[in-house]
Amino acid sequence: QVQLVESGGGLVQAGGSLRLSCAASGSIFNINSMTWHRQAPGKQRELVASITSDGSTNYADSVKGRFTISRDNAKNTVYLQMNSLKPEDTAVYYCNVRAQRHLWLDDYWGQGTQVTVSS
């Protein structure tokens, strides 16, 4: 069975940087997209960044210019480079992989990793 394992979260001062990683334990074929989401206490989960099968990327307005999503298909890993971090970036970050399996889509989720940004 496929499992996504996240790492790289932690505590950082405002203005600092972190790089999150999300590695699949097994091969995932026909990937449509890889995405990062985050959820802060009392708030809805929001889409932070996405990268699709053709390599195109999109970002939430709140992180544009600061965050970069990338992938390494050979390692089955997706990354989120976070620069110029702000206290409002504090949240649990989740990675997601969406894949086409026959005639339907499969979603795989990471366990979540805490990012805390101090002022």
Give the helices and strands, then pairings.
Layout: E1 4-7, E2 10-13, E3 18-24, E4 31-39, E5 46-52, E6 57-59, E7 67-72, E8 77-82, E9 91-101, E10 104-109, E11 113-118
Detailed description of the structure:
- This protein has 119 residues and is an all-beta fold.
- Helix content is 0%, strand content 58%.
- The chain has strands spanning 4-7, 10-13, 18-24, 31-39, 46-52, 57-59, 67-72, 77-82, 91-101, 104-109, 113-118.
- Strands 2, 4, 5, 6, 9, 10 and 11 form a seven-stranded mixed sheet that branches. A four-stranded antiparallel sheet has the order 1-3-8-7, with no helix packed on it.
- Strand 5 and strand 6 (57-59) form a beta hairpin.
